[in-house]
Amino acid sequence: MNKQIATPKAPGAIGPYSQAIEASGKTIYVSGQLPVDPATGEFAGVDIAAQTRQSLTNVKNILEAAGYTLEDVAKTTVLLSDIANFGPMNEVYGTFFTGVCPARACFQVAALPKGALVEIEAFACK
Questions:
Q1: What is the Cα gyration radius of the chain?
Q2: What is the three-class DSSP state of 70?
Q3: Residue 106 bears catalytic tag
Q4: Catalytic residue among 6, 49, 106, 112
Q5: What is the rounded CA–CA span in Å between residue 34 and residue 54?
Q6: N or C: which end of the chain has fewer CB atoms below 10 A?
Q7: 123, 104 in Cβ contact below 8 A?
């Protein structure tokens, strides 16, 4: 049975999807998180570092709402509007994931919703 996960500490879904779904009580799939500050509904900043930090904070808050931590993350996917932002994104990413880091894919895409610079999704297991 799938369980919907929702928290006010991350932006609400802006379409027909959930912030996250916990499957079988052992895994959680976190939808791609834009760098939206849930308190303001606006991007947390205009540069890749600030936006990466907010996207990962949103992922972290959703995981915590379901009883998971960043240490439970097995895989992430990072979408960038410009692959030239990989370095600065990676620096911020490395402050959230240390030790045994999750597997990761990173892609440049043509565009992201609302003109975001980054979107990050995660898959975590217990």
A1: 14
A2: helix
A3: yes
A4: 106
A5: 8
A6: N
A7: no
Q: Is 7 exposed, middle or buried (0-12, 13-18, 19+ CB in 10 A)?
A: middle
The whole-model pTM stands at 0.94
Q: How far apart are CA 17 and CA 13, in angstroms?
A: 6
Helix intervals (H) in 1-126: 48-65, 86-96
pLDDT digits (tens, 9 = 90+) for 17-55: 999 999 988 999 999 999 999 999 999 999 999 999 999
Q: What number of other Cβ atoms are within 10 A of residue 31's Cβ?
A: 21
Phi then psi for 86, rounded to 5 degrees? -60, -50
What residue has token string 């995660």?
Answer: 122
As given in the structure block, the two tokens for residue 44 are 């947390």
Please name the residue that has the structure tokens 């027909």: 16
**Number of helical H runs and strand E runs in the chain:** 2, 6
